[in-house]
Design a protein that fits this description.
alpha+beta; nine-stranded mixed sheet; eight-stranded mixed sheet; 17 strands; 19% helix; Anthracycline_SecMetBiosynth
Length: 257
Amino acid sequence: MSAFHGQFVWYELATLDAPAASAFYRAVIGWNMKDAGLPDREYTILSAGERPIGGLMALSQAECKAGAQPGWIGYVAVEDVDAMVARIADAGGAIVRPASNIPGVGRFAIVDDPQGAVFAVFRGGGDGTMAPAAPDTPGGVGWHELLAQDRKSAFAFYADLFGWGVGEAVDMGDMGIYQIFTIGGVPIGGMMTRAATMPAPFWLYYVNVDRIDAAIGRVREAGGRVVNGPHQVPGGSWIVPCLDPQDCMFALVAPTR
């Protein structure tokens, strides 16, 4: 089995306005951006320094009419995309986009978990390796959070597929239990049952920045909004969930206020 099986290796934003989204995230996070040179659509590679970490693309009218929604999606590395898609369907998930190839890159599929949270599974071309960025990479994604319909059954689903381990269970009071999950004993994210005010289950990705207050200032100056916070979390880091100008949700995490 690949050393990267079950790890998030790519993050992608589908947006209604690609130029505006590019300008926003360049201003807020400082990603380097370049065109991927795909033959069939414009696709912007997002890099933290020299390290590619994700992509950005505009949704077409046909995709919107078919029900596609703007937002961020995480790609999880797997050994066999087709076999994993079958397992996801057998476990009650849904296939949003069937498995297909990206010439010269790899094979992927977009799916919903049984509670409706969307994610992607991916295998790189060649030997299938695509190393994730280190969790503390500036401009990289440092944390992965699932707001589930039911935390316990969601954890069981993902643990069975990807071998995620059980980390610390943090009591959040009225908000319930926040269950941290691990890969190889290393915490990479957490899951909790969503609040009743949230419209649907979803994955939220936390991007590393230097200082949370300075980053909040950049979000507001660039036309985004802060959902709430900032909040200090166990371990001392500061976090804040935000909306970009197209109302796509993302989050920021920093070691200092």
